Amino acid sequence: MASDIGAQLMRILLVEDNRDIAASIADYLEIKGHSCDYASDGPGGLHMAMSGNYDVLVLDVMLPGMDGLSICERVRSHSSNDVPVIFLTARDRIEDKIAGFKTGADDYLVKPFELAELLIRLEALGRRGRMTTETRYEVADLSVDRATGMIKRSDQLIELSPTCRKLLLKLCEESPNIVDRETLEYTLWGDSPPDSDSLRSNLYTLRQAIDRDFTPALIHTIRGVGYRLAVIDENT
Questions:
Q1: pLDDT-based confidence at residue 85 (cuts at 50, 70, 90)
Q2: pTM score, two decimals?
Q3: Most buried residue, 39, 45, 113, 220, by CB count within 10 Å?
């Protein structure tokens, strides 16, 4: 049965070249009621990730043929694929975590780990993925199509990095409400946010793409509170 009341069956892809670790994870997840497919190398994992319909991807970083970072980048470059991704790796330096989140990952768990913690994180990512039901957002002349990945302002196509795209999607989901910085940091980096300037840097890059050549400005800083995506009448 499922691991807790209200948990839903998930279809999980595990890409891990250590067969003992993979077997342990797969057995545990299946005991808890989830389905787990498995690939032992990068190219095989990428093929399954792109062709399957998974609720969460679990990626090792060091893999034969193609590393996990490259798999995540390829998945995120496929505009309609927003499946949550968690890295499962022995690389524990902050630089490694930042590199993982920059490819578009949603979470990062360092080996060795407890299977129970992995399950909790997977189920949280699965719920987050199911909660995303809107496929298209429009704010003024900005349009964001989650299904195709197409972002336009005044009919001009805008290209964004995976991190800025994730940031924009979160602001769109909550628009016109304010999103506090802690929520945005968790959206981008999970429980391991980098230094305090990283969010500000990504917001600056996003503003350059979304607002620099257009009016009115849509991304606003609400000092001491957070950020919002909205049309604001400066005269009110």
A1: very high
A2: 0.63
A3: 45
